[in-house]
Amino acid sequence: MNISNLVDAAGVTPDQGSSRASLAVLLRRCAPFITVAVLAYPTLVWPLLEAEVVSLAPAMGQPVVDGPPSALLRLYFSSIFGLSLAAFIAARRMMAQGIAAPLLACLAANLAWAGLTVFWSVEPDITLRRFLLAIFVAGSLVLSVLAARDHRRILDLVFWMLVVAAALSTVSVLTTAATPIGHAAFYPHKNYFAAIVCAMIFTAAYQIMNGSGIARIAALALLPLCVGFLIAAQSKTSLGLAATVPALAYLIAWLAARARLSPAIIVSGICAAVWGIYTFGAESGIWDFHAVATAIFGDPTLTQRTDIWAFAFKKIEERPWLGYGFEVFWGASLNSPSVREATGFVAQMPQGHNGYIDLIVHTGYVGLALFVAVALLTLHRVGRVAARSVGYAAFLLCLILFPMLHNGLESSWFRSFNLVSMLFILGIALAARPVGPTQ
User: Fold this and answer.
1) How many Å apart are CA 37 and CA 77, to the nearest integer?
2) Quick check: 211 and 167 in contact, CB under 8 A?
3) pTM of full prediction above 0.90
C-alpha cells in the first residue's frame, strides 16, 4: 500500500500521511535494534552493572529471599516494551501476511495463565510483578521481531552483540581467577557463562552458513574460542549440548524438508522412544534412574538435584492442577513453600533445577500443558521454514531445542530475564514470521 492509499484510509492531509509513513519506516528499521537491546540485558548490561558472583559456600542460617526488581531493570524493560509496541503498531500496515496467529495466541494464553495464578498465589504481589516482567520481556521480543523488515538484520545484530560479549569474556578469562568449579568470566556463575557461550556457537554457525564477508570470518574465529570458554568453565553439560544440539537440529530440519515430516512429530517421536527405552530397562531391572544418571553425568543424584525434585513432587501432590503461583515457589519470600517447608540446602534453592518441574509447581499441570502446546506449534511451524531453507530451520531448532534440553537440569522457562528463556521466545517469534520464498 502506497502513501496516498494510507492518507485516504486515515483521512489526513498528504503532509500528515507522509510524516506518519516516514515514522513507521523509521520505527521498523529500529525494530532489530530493539530485539538486540532485550537480549543485551542478560548478556552485557546486567552482568556488568548489577550481577554479583554466586556464593559457592554451603548455605547456612536463614534462607535468603529475592528482593524487589532494581530500578534499572524496571526502567529498562518498560521502556523497551513501549518502543517495541510502537514499532509493531507503526509497521503493522507494512507487514506481510502469513503470521502464525495460532502459535502467538497459544503463547499469549500461556502467559495469561501465568497471570491468572495471581488469584491463588501464595504471594500475589510477587506473582503480579514477575508476570508483568515476563510480559515486558516476551512482548518486546515478539513485537520487535514481527515488526522488523528482515530477520537476517536481527540475526546479524545479535551475532555482533555476542561477539562483544566474547571479547569481554576473553579479557576476563585471561585476567581473572576461575571459581573453584570453573571460570565464569564476568558472569555470576560458570553455568550462566556456559549457556551464553552456547548462544555464541549457534549464531556463529548460522553466520558461517548464511553470512558473508567479515561476519563469516569473525564466526570462524569465534567457534574455537567458544570451545575454549566451555573448557575453562568446566561445563560438561553445555559442552555436550553445544556439540549435539546443532547436529540434531540439522538432522531434524533435513528430515522435515526431505520426508515432509513435521519437527513436532519427529521430536515427539524421539521423546517417546527415549522414554520407552528407559521404562523398559527400568521395569526389566537392567537399570534404574541412579544407574543412568551415573553413566551419563557421573553422579547418581545429579549434584543433589534428586533431593530438590523429591521435595517439589511432594508439594505438587498438594496443588497439582493450578500450582502455587507464577515464580513464587522457590525463594521469592519467606512465605515461599521452599523456604517455609524444605529442610537443609533445599530451602536455599532459587529454582528447582528442572524447568518442567518448575512449570508445574508454579502454574500446575494446566500451565505445563499450555507450554507443551506452544513448543509443539513452534516445532510444527519450523517445518514450514525447512521447506524453504534447511539451514535457517536448523538455526531456529537450535534456539528451541537448546532451552528444551537445558531445562532438564536447570530452570529458565519464562524466568525473569534469563537468556535461555529469551532464546526460546526469540525462536518462537522468528518462526511466527511469514514464511517467504527464501529465508
Assistant:
1) 9
2) no
3) yes
